[in-house]
Amino acid sequence: MRIVHLLIQHPCPLSAPVTASARGLRVTHLCHRGKETTLEAHSPDPVDLAPLLETYRNAGGIELFREGDGSAALVRFATCACCRSGRVIPTIEAAGNLYLPPSIYSVEGETYQFLVPEDGLDNEVLATLPADVRVLRIGTRALTSLGFEDTFLVPVGNLLSNLTPRQRQAIVLAFARGYYRIPHAVTTGELAQALEISREAFDALLRKAENKLLAALFPYLAAQSASRESPISSARSAGAPDS
Length: 243
Prior knowledge:
Blueprint: E1 2-9, H1 16-19, E2 26-29, E3 35-42, H2 46-58, E4 62-66, E5 72-79, H3 81-84, H4 89-93, E6 98-99, E7 103-105, E8 110-116, H5 123-127, E9 134-142, H6 156-160, H7 165-176, H8 188-195, H9 199-224, H10 231-237
Antiparallel strand pairs: 1-8, 1-9, 2-3, 2-7, 3-5, 4-5, 6-8, 7-8
Helix pairs in contact: 7-9, 8-9
């Protein structure tokens, strides 16, 4: 097996603002399956990032989070028309190859990687790409070791979709202000004051947000440890108490 890297350019409303922007701006396409598209945008200079975020908002994007210094942000779109119309990923996967996320947008274009058979990516497959998709560069390397399970990507939409805006605001504020440091850098009472609600109301928001995030993460945590011996089983077999 081999891993193939493709650098392409095509008229995509999500990548076009990046390729036309200042050098150094980059966007990671975290969820590339046609719905709940989530982009992680970075820029060395926050001044360069602001116009991109405005373009994304005007195109229907919802800003989920922004770094305090304005140098990075998460933006979610309800869907990606390029994915639904089968422009790059579905076309190459239809030939039996496997897409390895994420995709990267930069001033050069869009970078994708695929797991392909030993003889590489067939030119006939590339020829089936839409006419306006330009393949600028192809790189290939042998698959020499396995580590996919340790780089397992969790779709951000799966984690955040059940959070209410108020719950998201509470947990982002708690993390940003240092509530999860050891020891706490702030109390829930102080965080409640920032949101102008009671401490009890803030505690409830935070618990619900934490519970929803853990519930969304659990399937991925379970899958990650499925091939390993359960720590609980190990403790019990060693005679350790259950609690």
